[in-house]
Amino acid sequence: MRKKIVIIIGAMKCGTTSLFHYLAQHPLIIPSKNKEPHFFSEDAVYQRGLDWYESLWLGNLEEGIGIEASTTYTMNPKYPQVIQRIVEAQDDYDFKFIYILRDPISRLQSHMRHLIAGGHVGHTELVDDYIWYSEYARQLTLFSDAFGRNKIHVMLLEDLKENPDEEVQNIYEFLELPQSPIDHSIILNSQNTLNINPFVRKIYESGLVKSLAQKMFSPQVRQLMYKPLARRETIKAHLTNEQCRIYLSRLSHDLIQLREDYDVPIEKWDLSIPELIS
Question: Which architecture characterizes domain 3-104+133-184+252-277 according to CATH?
Fold first, then answer.
């Protein structure tokens, strides 16, 4: 009998961390040791094999549903082998997927804050990668074609923020799990993480330090630890009107497909150039 795994496949900067910790509270959901193992995307990690992948779970997969949340799985074409690798693993695992989306302008600004805070870039410049990660319909279609639409639960970050109980219970229904309460105190604020001093972040992101911190401290405690390590200024990234115009123009056909083919209520998003997707 195949073991069950649900993967939060993205999108990047759309609340995947909070959603992962919400779902991990269910008694029948078994979280991975590392929220983002990137097993099917990173070549060096994939070469460790399925035995290593199965060792990631904090429990017996025969007794529940495993969960991981690697946003690189919806970063095609940067990681082109993801779909095929998951397909090949289906002999051993029964996969379901959760794709959480967000207003693309907000997603991009959060993405840019992430890169600026980490010292990867120094300004808000549009590059193809950023646009690929916001092509929600295209990324969704890749998974839908390979696994079937019924294997994918699509949701909005805006809805999760507004009504976390209802959204999480909808996921439990999708996973055919009994309803279970969630602890609302687990709302992980990535802005706190981003504002950590870059030198401290580099130390923390080293494999050993991060692994020890995750084993020793709960997510809530780690969030409290960020405050004294933070720099004084808050990292900000705002798109210019021209950048918004270019960005939404590039995404217009994808947004139309998202609304028409996948029934995603994009009208909930504050898209600054609505005529592009009318």
Answer: 3-Layer(aba) Sandwich (3.40)
Q: Locate all alpha helices (DSSP H) within the chain, ordered by sequence.
A: 16-23, 43-46, 50-54, 82-88, 104-117, 128-133, 136-147, 157-162, 164-174, 190-194, 198-205, 207-216, 219-229, 241-262
Per-residue pLDDT tens over the stretch 123-142: 556 667 788 999 999 999 99
Three-state SS string across 156-171, please? EHHHHHHCHHHHHHHH
Cis peptide before 11 (omega within 30 of 0): yes
List 65's β-bridge partners, or say none.
4, 29
What is the CB neighbour count within 10 angstroms for residue 148?
9
Distance (Å, whole) CA 67 – CA 56: 10
- Residues 6+ positions from 78 with CB-CB distance below 8 Å: 72, 129, 132
**Cβ atoms of 248 and 272 closer than 8 Å:** yes
Q: Which two tokens stand for residue 89?
A: 């693993």
Q: Sheet containing 3-10: which strands, arranged edge to edge? A: 29-31, 65-68, 3-10, 93-101, 152-156
Tell me the residue type at 92: D
- The answer on pLDDT for 244 being more than 80 is yes
**How many Å apart are CA 167 and CA 186, to the nearest integer?**
15
Q: Coil, strand or helix: which one is 19?
A: helix
Q: Is the pLDDT of residue 158 over 90?
A: yes
Amino acid letter for position 258: L
Cα 159 to Cα 175: distance, rounded to the nearest angstrom? 19
User: Kind of pairing, strands 93-101 and 65-68?
Assistant: unpaired
